[in-house]
Specification:
This protein has 549 residues and is of the alpha/beta class. Helices cover 38% and strands 17% of the residues.
Amino acid sequence: MTTDKKNIQALVEACRIRDIRQVVFSPGSRSAPLVIAFSQVKEEIQCLVIPDERVAGFFALGIAQQQRTPVAIVCTSGTAVLNFAPAICEAYYQQIPLLVLTADRPAEYIGIGENQAINQTDIYHNYIKASYTLPEDAHEAANITAKAISETVTNTLGPVHINIPLREPLYNRIDERLNELVVPAVSIAKSIAQPVTVSSRTMLICGMGEKDDKLYEVIRKLANTNGLAIITEPLANLSGLDTITNVDAAIASLKTDDYAAYAPDTIITIGKQIVSKRIRQFLRKVQPESHYHLSDDRGEWNGLGAKSYKHISCDATATLTALAENRSTDVAFRSKWIALHNEAVKKTATYGAKIPFSDWHVFQTLIASYPKDACIQYGNSSPIRYAGFFKHQSHNAINANRGTSGIDGCVSTAAGAAFQTGKLTICVVGDVSFLYDSNALWNNYLSPHLRIIVINNGGGNIFRLIEGPNQVEGFDKYFETRHNHSAEYLAQMYQIPYYFCDRADDLDFVLGQFYKPQKGRPAILEIRTDGAISEKAYKDYFRFLSEAQ
């Protein structure tokens, strides 16, 4: 038996036909017709239930992040809808396809004091590709749903919202099914290669992107045969190439008087957000002549200080492939940057050999320890910044929630990614991020392949590393969020194996044990460091880069 609401039957049938294969529910009464209808196709659409809407949204994002096809999320009416918002915002800026289905009161019940009723129409309007209200007519509902699914994956991937007013009774069920529906086909426009103009001093910056063998090969070819200075952060998933990977160290090694010699005339960017603040500051100071962003998305990259900016709507890989065919004979600019970077890498190794036990030391050890083919999910604030200092292996896929760079949902996203891939997934987060998203552990779908590493330095140490906050009166209270909490007790509550380390001599051994299979459960490793020592080690690193010869 299914719901007696024909439009809900039509929505679910459109989801089934248009290859929605997973739906994540958060419990609630108003969404009951959706639960009833989806449960009738559970052999084709996997139905998951996660109590916390914020966790559910990020868990679904983690699944969709890995498979690049839309996942549906369903909630009841009222503030539950708002609790999806952080994940929807991240999906919008990270370009992850989500189909957001929110149950609602009928329009006449809004604004008259009805319980659990808020204005949900276009509620996510700044962070959504499109928003619809589901009509009561079944055929119109099927058309709207098919269109919404299509829009999640057309050109720029992203979230699409369908708000669903539902009248009581909500729990009525019938045997009668809809007659066969005609569901419109999904139409996806394809972008093509476009020409791009380069100069003898061109810099290619590769932002956040998923692993892509074709792109990897074309960047390899450009790095070996062309004069482009190519910057690839870990999140570009282009590790293992002869490129500039630790751009922060390279720029920190420069004297201000040397900036002009390393300034590009032309910038080309691909992918999504970049982490490095130093490269942004450098480019804004030297003001290149032109900046081309290659993508089939919105092209929101006009912030690197170039005198002119042009978004070229194209297939970036195809465009760079054409560029790679035009072999450049002038490699002086690239050679200058590679030499600068290689020297910075040597300085980093020298510094790392004498560093005390600290966050810096932990990341140096961690990144060298990752097992082959493990998927890495970095938390924001300190972890993603430290990750850029060290060489990653090409066989490790690297992800992070850098669409909006918030700390909310980092663990939940990693949990969704581990659930989807079935691969060893290592989530590396700070203590505040972990505590903030600890409801991620209240989840019946935690994969035994999930490993959560919590770097606990006793508070928001990122505010000691960036300029400004520590000059404000009340820094400890208002910025740093000092605490004495441990992940151990949360691990006990959720019956998750727990490991602990607070000494350099033990870290390699503990990591070896931690990565091993855990008898059907994930595992948590808490690494305790000293916040003051970690602050000094971080700042001393950049002083060493600027002073060492």
